[in-house]
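As noted in the main text, all predictions were made from sequence alone. Below is one such record, for ABC transporter permease.
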Amino acid sequence: MERLRQSIRSVAPAIIAIIMFLVVWEVAVWIWDVENWILPAPSLIVLTLFDTWHLLPEHIWMTTKEALLGFLLGIIVALVMAFILDFSSFLRKSFYPILLFSQTIPIIAIAPLLIIWFGYGILPKVLVVALVTFFPVVVSVVEGLQSSDRDMIRLVRSMGGSHLQVFSSVRFPHALPYLFTGLRIGATYSVLAAVISEWVGASSGLGIYLIKAQSSFATDRVFVVIVLISLLSCLLFLVVVLLGRLMMPWKHKSQKK
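Prediction:
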């Protein structure tokens, strides 16, 4: 019960701020008599969500599938790359600048190339999400591995510990908080990356639904998509946070103290 009270107290300010923002928005639209195609009221957006719900599940599922598959692929590739870069200082110095440079290329410019190379199926969308979520994870894990406690490493080695034992008992546990920091960042990017990839070429997905709503000046439907994208991103972020608490209970307990 005490934990529930603490959780409520921690999220209460954010909930109150959101409610106040929506109330001000609703009142402002009503007072200035703003046209719905310019800025719909929150109440109209909610009504539109219910009225068009029968059209949305297919689009929601496609975007969610692209985001999840791309996120998982990005995590796997990022972990492998992080371990390789950590293993060799030469590789780290050689490839780290290339990784940094890759992030200067707009994803909207890469997506058409992936469509040309891999077609209009789900694969190019998954690759776009993986490219976006890959970088924060690999950078975070490399930083975590490189900042491991040297005294603990020497202690384990003095007791006859192998490289694998040092990695599993000292270095990787130390890198876990860094890993989940990167995962939280990647989780917030994954849904947005999936939507952007759908703009280039797709038959279903929230990105396609958004383009159709925008082209018909259905601003209320545009806001419905914005709400759904935000909710999916928050849900994936929450899943990552919960997984972090399960895998790092010691960190959560120390923060509570």
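The domain at 40-256 is CATH 1.10.3720.10 (MetI-like fold). The longest helix spans residues 163-200. These features were considered when defining construct boundaries for the mutagenesis experiments described in Section 2.9.
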